[in-house]
Fold:
Amino acid sequence: MSAVLSPVAVGDSGEPLIRWDWIGRNSDIITHALNDHLVLAIVPVLVGLAVSLPIGLLCARYRWLYAPVVGITSVLYAIPAIALFVVLVAFTGLTRTTVIIPLTLYTLSVLVPAVVDGMDSVPEHVRQAATAMGFGTLRRLVQVELPIAVPVVMAGLRVATVSNISLVSVGALIGVGGLGQLFTDGFNRDFTTPIVVGIALIIALAIVADVLLLIVQRVLTPWARAGGSRRTERRAVRAELATPEEAAL
Amino acid sequence: MDAGTHNPFVSEWNGVTAAPEEDVNRLITFTGVTKRYPDGTVAVHDLDLEIPAGRITVLVGPSGCGKTTTLRMVNRMIDPTTGTITVDGRDIREVDPPKLRRGIGYVIQQAGLFPHRTIIDNIATVPYLLHQDKKQARARALELMERVGLDTALAKRYPSQLSGGQQQRVGVARALAADPPIMLMDEPFSAVDPIVRHQLQDEFLRLQSEVEKTIVFVTHDIDEAVKLGHRIAVFQVGGVLAQYATPDELLANPANDFVRDFLGGDRGIRRLRFVQELDAEAAAEAAVQAADGGPPPPTDDEAATAGER
Structure:
């Protein structure tokens, strides 16, 4: 696969950390790897959220389920990706699916607790007030509990997304690793430029994704920041209180 | 302003004390109601209680006496183990709980406001649930904000931006939004400081004199019970109703030692104060009626209230 890449003579000295001309000549490969990386990072998070939501809601409702479920997701998280690949390749071959399945399983260990914690963040008096005003169970869930759980779930989603963006590289083991392909290429040829480019892009991707999710969260939950004015008031009060002391000094 | 002929304090008490008791219809009735939990605890024991329409009935007692359980059985947040509860003559077991609850206002201690909804949307919650016109529901919510003494500039704020007292007012407005005939109030003023509490109590009495809801009010504070209640039901531990009487009757003739202890040592002073207030109000009312030649028209009442603000 590295046939396309321009061969470069590698010496112990004289070889720079990064060759800028390589980037220009291989921009197609880099763009393709980046797109692959995005898909491989995002699909597991979305599927993971879709799976975690019902599981988390069940755990929040039937507490006895929670401990065993956390146990199972933790064990899944502990299985090395390569072991899962070996098993999955027999069924799904060297495809994206083979990478997406383990990454999806890994997100569960973050997202299931996030959903349960989100539901726990709904104050009991709010839940009771909703019931007392005539919300049915489903309507209460959709209109009251889930919206209030959003900040906590979003926090979990951000962790899962960022960690997934770095985890995708492991797919390079079976040739489906997004930007991870640049690592194997660089290692195979003892050539640092693709490795540096891969690391830089993965970090950039993680930061962009995190910021985007933060913006989404702020748009979805304007109320969560609404306490701000009161914090400002408290600060103002503190400042006022501080003034006479400072004057005394 | 022409409020000179009309004392707002009289109208404040009109709804609470004026009508003769015999004419009052019983809106909520408990017949042989017992609530026993699976672990054997009896929260409410064989309760018979009739709650009059258009009045404030206070359930009072120490913690664990079953007063909150009793309250929450009215809107089926808790179902009794045995016995029957009727609202307006109808057995509430026949009514689908969410439907029943939309017709009963509910106010609790921590207000229970929805943190993710603005004040105006919090207040309009039940009208939205009843699929009422959104515009109308919001207009009504704004009107209610004024009625409970909230600046309508707060309409677009979120609950976390309001003080405890303001949140409690929103809670009351929200309970009133769909104009339910019944309101259940579970220690609604207990979480705020004493000054705000007295203010909220006074305004609550004024508001009740305008809306005349059937109110079931739970408190552990006997002073609050005497101040607000048209009738007071004193519960003792084990969910037994110790006495059900008007405040005056209760203070004059406690039914047993428990009630006497619960009312406390200053019962005599409390009664004296209570009776004096009643006398003063009766005198003022007589004077006003002599001057007016009849009860004051409602517009006058509103003018007086507006003037207060």
Observations:
- Strands of chain B lie at 26-36, 42-52, 56-60, 82-87, 90-91, 104-108, 182-186, 214-219, 231-236, 240-245.
- The two ends of chain B are 13 Å apart (CA to CA).
- The first strand of chain B starts at residue 26 and ends at 36.
